[in-house]
Amino acid sequence: MSISPLLSNGANGLTGNGTTATHTSGGLSGISQALAKAEQRVQADANSTTAQLSSFGLLKSAVSASQGSAKALAETASSASSTVITKSVENFYRSFNSAIAASKAASMLPGSSPASQSARRVSSDLKHVLSTDPAAKSAMSLLGLSIGIDGVLIHNDKKLAASLASNHAGVLSALKELGNKVSDIATQELATGGGVGAGLTTLNQRESRLAAQQQAIRAAETALASANDTNTDIGSGVVMSAAAAGPAPTILPSQAKTGLAAYHSNATAV
């Protein structure tokens, strides 16, 4: 629906230049309906943005947890027992998988496409380093880890146990290698330009823009309501001339256009 014709057709009614009450109310009614539609649309987008922000909050928490467990893996003491190492590996792959799951969930929500792309980027980057880096792949093999079809880590505890029994020093080296790789990627994703950081920036900006649009629409609706109360008498069908009724309270073009602009600008909001 185009708002421009409504603005044009309702211009005389908005400025109170002596048109009839019937014409005035008709112009104001058309703009009022357009404002109502715009408000519904902006509210729907605001709701989806809130849902995406919540999902990105969970994603940020999951990536932070993965970052922490990866650091702990890299910092495993040389004197650590097999039990401690096994537990560290378990914490590592569980938190990694949680980050992958959170990334997928955030990317599937309706709303901002750039934010969805940022969410997908997180899981893509995490999986990429483990599937393409030779040192990371070698470390994973020694620790009994592999990447499944869905991108999550699969753990073979028997293979880890065998590696601990035959090559304890090699396992310690693998822990450091793999932990540092994933920790570095997680840190990048949490940064301003990373998948998590960029997604949150996009959504916060979108939320602010939608709030401004809602405020503009409500201001225009208030001005329209005031004009209707003063200039329109649909029930009695009275035609008021400019001389009899006096000048109508003016709705500034900027008020109407700013509010109605939400109907158009929000269609391309990200």
Write the SSE topology.
Blueprint: H1 4-9, H2 11-15, H3 21-74, H4 82-108, H5 113-132, H6 134-142, E1 145-147, E2 153-155, H7 157-166, H8 168-190, H9 195-231, H10 242-245, H11 253-265
Antiparallel strand pairs: 1-2
Gist of the model:
The chain is mainly α and 270 residues long.
Give me some keywords for this one.
mainly alpha, 2 domains, two-stranded antiparallel ribbon, 11 helices, 2 strands, disordered N terminus
Shape: rod-shaped
Radius of gyration from the alpha-carbon trace, in angstroms: 30 Å
* Number of spatially distinct domains: 2
Run of helices and strands: HHHHHHEEHHHHH
What is the beta-strand fraction? under 5%
Give the mean pLDDT.
81
Description of the structure:
It is a single chain. Strand 1 and strand 2 form a beta hairpin. The chain has two domains: 19-44 and 212-268; 56-203. The protein has helices at 4-9, 11-15, 21-74, 82-108, 113-132, 134-142, 157-166, 168-190, 195-231, 242-245, 253-265, and strands spanning 145-147, 153-155. 77% of the residues lie in helices and 2% in strands. It is built from eleven helices and two strands, in the order ααααααββααααα.
